[in-house]
Design brief:
about 60 residues; alpha+beta; two-stranded antiparallel ribbon; 1 helix
């Protein structure tokens, strides 16, 4: 397969609250794509369930360019 694949692991992120805010994280990702002059043609986001201690679950997502 030819092409460029970029991944980001945001563990221990300086803006940790963003990691449980799906709309906020998606918006930041879309802004980064747009600022690079690229076009999003599809995306998928998944929120993980809350932990047993009640803390919010994380988010995983992807943008197809």
């Amino acid at each position: 397969m030819n092409g460029l694949h970029l991944t980001a692991d945001l563990a221990r992120c300086a803006r940790a609250a963003l990691l449980t805010d799906a709309p906020g994280l998606a918006g930041q990702a879309r802004e980064a794509v747009a600022s690079a002059g690229l076009t999003v043609v599809g995306e998928h986001w998944h929120r993980f369930p809350a932990a047993a201690d009640g803390s919010p679950g994380g988010i995983t997502g992807m943008l197809l360019l």
